[in-house]
Amino acid sequence: MRTIFPFFLVPFVLACNSCASGPYFPTVADTTPLPVIDEQYERAAMVETTCMDGSGAWGSAVLLDDHRALTALHVVAQCGDPIILVQTSDGKKHLVTVDAIAPNADMVRLVALDRWAVPKGKLQWSKAPHRGRVACAVTGMPHRNRLCGEVQESNDDAGAEVEFRIVADHGNSGSAVYDSAGRLVGVLTQLRSCSNGQYCSTLASEIDGREWILR
């Protein structure tokens, strides 16, 4: 039986190199040139949630336009009335509030009280890649990075989840997941524990069936 954890609660040891000995892992090294995905780096942001008692969480997000962002719901749902900040690639922090929550999914849209710089390029979305194809996450926390791996499971039903194998870290929840064409397909939500010490994998809530949340 495999255990599932939200990313920001996962000790880094669960995303260790010793878990990377499976036959498909890693499929694509982070240094492999993938310009269509690297163009999305400016959209990667960091989310900081602070509760009244001083507790909170860190996560990642993807900027949708000049005032809205998408992240994992569990990153911002730590208390009843948290202070939520989104830090963009220029280092500026912006106060945001919850704008919309995707039903039956670990996904939420945030709206800023001001504006940030509009990311370059058009954001497109697509269905999740089929098993055996590549999916890449672009993280905003703890630093901007590209994490690619092979898709293991992908449900064709709208609003499902896609599983793919990458080495994840603290704060990766909410990171945008793209296909090899640079189209947004989901948001990172959970890390599966290592299976027999062979590999670690991640889950992402799919955009397909919830594309309204991008508009």
List the defining traits of the structure above.
215 residues; mainly beta; Thrombin, subunit H; 2 domains; 2 helices; 13 strands; 4% helix; disordered N terminus
Question: Your description of this structure?
Answer:
The protein is mainly β. The protein folds into 2 domains: 4-39 and 122-214, Trypsin-like serine proteases (Thrombin, subunit H), CATH 2.40.10.10; 44-112, Thrombin, subunit H, CATH 2.40.10. 4% of the residues lie in helices and 37% in strands. The chain has 2 helices and 13 strands, in the order βαβββαβββββββββ. It has helices spanning 35-38, 73-76, and strands spanning 4-6, 44-50, 56-63, 68-71, 83-87, 93-101, 108-112, 134-139, 145-154, 161-164, 176-179, 184-192, 201-206. The strands form 2 sheets. It has a 6-stranded antiparallel β-barrel with strand order 8-9-10-13-12-11. The chain has a 6-stranded antiparallel beta barrel with strand order 2-3-4-7-6-5. A hairpin with a 4-residue loop joins strand 11 and strand 12 (184-192). The radius of gyration is 16 Å and the shape is globular. The N and C termini lie far apart (38 Å).
Topology readout:
Layout: E1 4-6, H1 35-38, E2 44-50, E3 56-63, E4 68-71, H2 73-76, E5 83-87, E6 93-101, E7 108-112, E8 134-139, E9 145-154, E10 161-164, E11 176-179, E12 184-192, E13 201-206
Antiparallel strand pairs: 1-12, 2-3, 2-5, 3-4, 4-7, 5-6, 6-7, 8-9, 8-11, 9-10, 10-13, 11-12, 12-13
